[in-house]
Input
Amino acid sequence: MNVAVVGLGRVGLPLALSFADRGLQVIGVEREPAVLEAVAAGRMPYRETGTQELLEHVLAAGGFERTRTVQDAAQADHIVLTLGTPAHVHIEIDMSQIKQVVDDLLPVLREGQSLILRSTVAPGTTDWVAGYIEQRRGFRVGEDLFVAHVPERIAENHFLEEIASLPCIVGGVGEGSGAKAAELFEAFGAEIVQSTPVQAELAKIWTNILRYTQFALP
Output
């Protein structure tokens, strides 16, 4: 099995390394040259417990390609988007990075692939992405192509611990998307919880709200 992780930030890079550590062939896509240079030099650009050693191990073992070209992600069977979705002044989530990457991928997507959103997005975003792809490429999402939201809910500095223990929520669009996305994340051995895309999106938002209440406000 192979996977592309688009966006090698604090969420994407540990995820890509964890996939590679479990024997998957991984393509990491990152447009920021400084990040790619740091990784190539064997240096984690972000602090996350245990990942420096993991990076060194993965680079020595091979199986982790890096590129700045988004379209290269289409070489993989699974494409995971771990992109920034900052909030505007009135709390609306900025979808520009996700939309740009989807537009870049549209001409090269192929039948049987899965596209998985992992960022914080507003409820309805995953269904919108699925409809956008159907309109422009003619795929039947859930049958020809698979789209899901698998929210990132791991606490900072606990990635390697929680990726293998925290239940993984999978919100697939259509009949087959949930099962297809689960095939990928079963590599971590954690419990898989199937839901609708909106339920998955809301689970991420409520996780953030809980953390703001428990940690940020105090």
